[in-house]
Amino acid sequence: MASSSALSRLSNLHNHLNPTDPLSKGVKLSPEVTEALSRGHAVVALESTIISHGMPFPKNLETAKEVEAIVRENGAVPATVAILDGIPCIGLSTEELERLAKLGSKSQKTARRDIAHVVAMRANGATTVSATMFFAAMVGIPVFVTGGIGGVHRHGEHNHDLGFLEISALVIALVCFDVFFAAMDISSDLTELGRTPVAVISAGVKSILDIPRTLEYLETQGVCVAAYKTHEFPAFFTESSGCKAIHEMIFYFIYLFIFDNNLDINMKLKLGSGILISVPIPKEHTTSGSLIESAIQSALKEARDKNIVGNAETPFLLARVNELTGGMSLASNIALVKNNALVGARISVALAQLRQ
Ligand code: PSU
Ligand code: MN
């Protein structure tokens, strides 16, 4: 039989999961987001790992505020998502945004798998793409803007159950040829796109990742991948990845997406999957491809030398690439996030008008 203290802890948790929540779903919506959703106005979800783990303070706060301002200027309401003191918040006040930006990596990077734990611990969690999509879908926000999504990490295909001979070959390869065999690390952003009907606007996938395999995996997950004004899938810092956007959806697709009500059809048919709309970085902010590539190679080598793996790898690589490019990659990152916010806000407004 459960002890009374265990029961009282459970009931505390129950109360904790039902804050002043109009939807009684264990989440707190800002008054502005509540009103916009109830009136059917455009709302754009924004993630918070990019604030806490993706950029240094105070640039992170400045960027988060500017991104929210761009969404507003273009007629939509921004809904930055984060878990504060264990409460999933959808739409942050300026004070909450500041708190999160200052917490930086002291907040827990929160993907889907981490949500329940962060809530139970009443901790502060910055949501990644997967967790932000989850909360956006829960409250009915169909459009979500980010910088870049996670993907399939490089060299994951070499992950086997190794026998003695294979291990010996691996050691020789490591020592003599500096060849690295990594764990099979596939971001939960990709599986979330396969199971959650939200349109995600991003600048594609960083080349710290294996882009062709990321696209293959998105196909496996049944995710519609579109590219904005181009046939090519962008590589975050650069416009080209050498890979085609799977459906070769060019500019007009955005309009098809809106006017054919692609997302609504997606929902009516209960496809259940998300849509990835990749927007290339504006030309004037492209970082030199070769500079980025050599910085990525050095950062990847450092990560494996220091044995930085799992969810620590992406933040480490982002920070190192920025240092190695003398801050150029951060400037590009900020520029592309703002551009994505502009595109996402417009899509969200058009979608809301269509639904009126
Ligand atoms: N890529 C970026 N910037 C980021 C991230 C990815 O260019 O800030 C963050 C996003 O929150 C993304 C997460 O959802 O990293 C993916 O982490 P992982 O690779 O551990 O799944
Ligand atoms: Mn991972």
Describe the 3D structure:
With 356 residues, this protein is an alpha/beta fold. 49% of the residues lie in helices and 11% in strands. It has 15 helices and ten strands. Strands 1, 2, 3, 4, 5, 6, 7, 8, 9 and 10 form a ten-stranded mixed sheet that branches. Helix 6 (115-120) links the parallel strand 5 (108-110) and strand 6 (125-127). Helix 4 (59-73) runs antiparallel to helix 5 (94-103) and helix 9 (188-195) packs parallel to helix 10. The protein starts with a helix and ends with a helix. Residues 10-23 have low confidence and may be disordered. Bound molecules: pseudouridine-5'-monophosphate and manganese (II) ion. The site of manganese (II) ion (MN) has 4 residues, from loops.
Give the number of DSSP strands. Answer: 10
Ligand identities: pseudouridine-5'-monophosphate, manganese (II) ion
Q: What is the CA-atom radius of gyration, in angstroms?
A: 21 Å
Order of helices and strands: HEHEHHEEHEHEHEHHEHEHHEHHH
The major β-sheet equals: 10 strands, mixed
The end-to-end distance, rounded to whole angstroms, is 53 Å
Q: Structural class from helices and strands?
A: alpha/beta
Helix share of residues?
Answer: 40-55%
Output the number of helix runs.
15
| Rough outline | globular
Tell me the strand percentage band: 5-15%
Query: pLDDT average, as an integer?
Result: 85
Runs in which pLDDT lies below 50 for 5 or more consecutive residues are: 10-23
InterPro entries: Indigdn_synthA-like (IPR022830), PsuG (IPR007342)
GO molecular function, one term: hydrolase activity, acting on glycosyl bonds
Protein name: Pseudouridine-5'-phosphate glycosidase
Region (Disordered): 1-27
